[in-house]
Amino acid sequence: MSTHLDPKALLASLYHDNHVWLRGWLGRQVRCPQDAADLTQDTFLRAFDAQQLDRIQEPRAYLSTVARRLLCSLWRRRKLEQSYLEQLAELPEDHAPSAEDIALVREAIEAIDRALEGLPQRVKRAFLLSRLEGMPHLAIAELLGVSLATVERDLRRAFVHCLSQTAD
Fold this sequence. Notes:
Order of helices and strands: HHHHHHH
Largest sheet: none
Number of helices: 7
Mean pLDDT: 86
Number of strands: 0
Oligomer: single chain
Helix content: over 70%
Distance between the termini: 30 Å
Radius of gyration: 19 Å
Shape: globular
Strand content: under 5%
């Protein structure tokens, strides 16, 4: 891409040249036109937020990498959501949460997912096992096949990362 254009012009050019292609590619991945449209827009927003549009050498490779990360995040969120809904279905009716409570939990799950974005998978998993499942560090180490020191280091990394996300 040319470096003499301002960021908005670069984004407009990137969008114009690649929007249809990216939306089609995402549509084949998710098989849902609404999700594909949302992910396409999110991909371009992330590209703009990166503020490095003038450095992109291969626009489609860059966009597909960003889109793949968003797809992983979407699938991870949906898996968490599905697990939560399955557990809700097992509760007796008189203990079932209200629609408002369910919406609040979904928002919390999305906030946690956003806060952990950018961390390696093992670090995220250790954090979720510790905070959401209440697993002790030694059990996490055994489950993940790593040392106790690695789990503790991963948890520190996740906490620091989450704190840095909330400081923005």
